[in-house]
Amino acid sequence: MKTKLSISILIIYTFLMCQIISAQNIKVPKGGKKISNELIGIFFEDLSYAADGGLYSELIQNGSFEYSPTERDGWGPTTSWRMQRPGHSTGYIESRTDNPIHENNPHYLCITAEHVGHHSDFNGWTGVGIQNDGFDGIVLRSGQKYVFSIFMRNKESKPMDIRIVLTSDRNNILSEFTITTRGSNWEKYTSTLSPTSDSDHAQLSVLLLTEGSIDVDMISLMPQETYKSHGLRKDLAEALEALHPKFVRFPGGCVVHGGGDGFWDTYRWKTTIGPKETRKGIKNTWGYHQSMGLGYYEYFQLCEDLGAEPLPILPVGVSCQGAGGSWGLREQNQMSVPMEDMDEWAQDALDLIEWANGDITTEWGSKRAHSGHPAPFNLKYLGLGNEEKITPEFEERFKFIYNKIREAYPDIIIIGTAGPGSHKGNPDYDNAWRLAEELDMPIIDEHYYEPRNYFLNNQHNYDNYPRERKTKVYLGEYAMKDRDWMWMDALAEGLYLLGIERNGDVVCMTSYAPLFAKKDHTNWNPDLIYFDNTKVYPSCSYYVQQMFGLSSGDYYYDDIVKMDSPDKLQGSSAILDSSTNTLYLKIINATDSFHIAQINLQRFGKLPKTADVRILSGKMDSRNNYEKEEISPQNTEFEIEKNMNINVYPYTFMLLTIKL
Predict the structure, then answer these.
(1) For the chain, how big is the Rg over CA atoms in Å?
(2) Is the peptide bond before 376 cis (omega within 30 degrees of 0)?
(3) Which helix (DSSP H) or strand (DSSP E) does residue 306 occupy?
(4) Cβ of 425: how many Cβ atoms within 10 Å?
(5) CA distances to 1, 298, 313, 436, 613 from 429, in Å
(6) Domain containing 155: what range?
(7) Where are the alpha helices (DSSP H) in 531-605?
(8) Last residue of a domain, one of 550, 566, 594
């Protein structure tokens, strides 16, 4: 009986396998070219307040009192805080550094109440303390909950009462509670606040109600509702999710190797994990403070939540050559770590891989587990360096780290840099490619920002890249510069991306840059997603990127779609995702007249009756900005045939999705 049953199971299994193989043959008709299915990703760098005040949902600015004049003239530990003495109270505040919570967070505030008044002339308030407006105001919504936390140390031998108050911009009380502290050591206190009404410009006050002194630090107010409960602003993270990225590159960009004025502000991943009070905030390359509330743990967690591969970028012991903005003095301004100290920098890379991939019995894997993630993050990619000039000093240090990683972790895919100007003939670019070929580097990261005509005139840029090269291309930063939110510019970027899809056997990854920019705090234009404290403003380019993210696949066909009069203002691609048996047809018409797309689907066998169609269309000078959104996707259905012609409107991008 057992034998007959086993034979029956084997027959069924063989039949099913044959069906699967047959289905796979149907899915991949002849004529397709194998391409990367990870072409579209995102690149996060903390500039234009993308992290603090942006994606990281912390509502209190400088809650750790670590702002410094080294980051911005006039800044200090009490930046973003105001002294309060309501009810005719008297007292003072003082920044201190003796016996802090942690050496990475040395500053805290001592609040002293000499006299707590009883004359309630300020909505019933009294006491001595401080008030914070957050990042351009604290946004609160009635019916939602907010988690408040603070570290305090009682300096007196008696209980001390601290009042926590949320108020509107008209000083109406929205929520409050009182903490009584007795401990003489640092202790963390947490409570949940529920505002009674909405406010876009609320403030948080911390008031000492008992005469005497108390130390306070790490003051925090976070929405309880965040993206997948992981501490990130929900609407901004959902905007990333809607791009359908295959990977996320972080934390930069120039943020990786610091501002070029030494190595003290270089981004070191080990000081961005663990409890928030132990993380080391540093100067941001773009002129403000990084609290590291959004650190490596949160970056990896975001990648997991998005279903995207993590792509961390590590420094290689060489600084940015553009110190103080002096890009014309590249060699002179590039600083290098002494080779005798490079073991530490290489070990950082090895430890990161163990932290991301090691089991809980390893030193760094146990640290990841202790943070709340016992399972490995399954890191596949690791980037080394960002836009450094390819000097002999850079090459020596890059090779040192590269070889250490290859020896210890040969399966990790290392991505190198093509230098600050990724065009043929640029000495850095040429030297970077020479180094890549010498090391058999898997991937090299090219960057360029160019005007519209570059993208229109160079759509065949990668056609002639040697196919025999082992090194693939990651176009890690690109965007059209010298622009004003215009739809035509986004279409030109789309046409260029069609050329990259055609060369998806050479170019394996791309990411538009920069990603985020906060209104009134923008360091760089253009950006993919603009935002303020309450709204998200997707650019025209955002929707172009979304179209490509929605239509990723692993086979490219160059003879499915033909334009009636092909030129640099029209383009198309046909992409098959063999894992889902879905065909994507993209068509761009960036001219001022109608054009016909001729489509031949004969090779794909039986077709469904309809295709889902997504359309972006507008005028050449249509714009998405803070005042209006003139470009947004429209969805419909379209009846399809084996052979058909589609009339494509002027300045239009169409995506047809066909489930085979």
Answers:
(1) 28
(2) no
(3) helix 296-306
(4) 7
(5) 70, 33, 19, 10, 40
(6) 81-223
(7) 540-550
(8) 550
Of 173, 189, 223, the one marking the end of a domain is: 223
pLDDT at 177 (0 to 100):
95
| 140-144, 465-469, 598-602: least confidently modelled range | 465-469
The secondary structure of 340-369 as a DSSP string is: GGHHHHHHHHHHHHHHHH--TTSHHHHHHH
CATH number of 579's domain: 2.60.40.1180
Task: Record the tokens describing residue 573, joined without a space.
Answer: 């691609």
Q: Based on the fold, state whether residues 406 and 502 are members of the same structural domain.
A: yes
For 623-655, write each residue's pLDDT tens digit: 999 999 999 999 999 999 999 999 999 999 999
Nearest to 445 by CA among 240, 245, 246, 252: 252
Number of Cβ atoms within 10 Å of the Cβ of 498: 17
Say yes or no: 232 and 216 in one domain. no
Q: Are 106 and 251 in the same domain?
A: no
| Planar angle of CA 102, 106, 107, nearest 5 degrees | 130
Q: Over 80: is that where the pLDDT of 355 sits? A: yes
- Provide φ and ψ at 29, rounded to 5°: -65, 160
Residues 6+ apart with CB under 8 A from 275: none
Q: What is the mean pLDDT of residues 56-74?
A: 96
pLDDT at 280: 97
- Check whether residue 90 and residue 163 sit in a common domain: yes
| H/E element, 496 | helix 487-502
Same domain, 486 and 526: yes
CATH number at residue 346: 3.20.20.80
Residues 265, 363: one domain? yes
Which are the catalytic amino acids?
Answer: 387
Cα–Cα distance measured from residue 257 to residue 602, given in angstroms and rounded to the nearest whole number? 53
Res. 260 pLDDT band, cuts 50 70 90: low
61 domain residue, yes or no: no
pLDDT of amino acid 496:
98
- Say if 464 falls within a structural domain: yes
Number of domains in the chain: 3
pLDDT reported for residue 20: 41
pLDDT of residue 125: 80
Is the domain of 333 the same as that of 390? yes
The whole-model pTM stands at 0.94
The string of pLDDT tens digits covering residues 555-583 is: 999 999 999 988 999 999 999 999 999 99
Chain mean pLDDT for the chain: 92
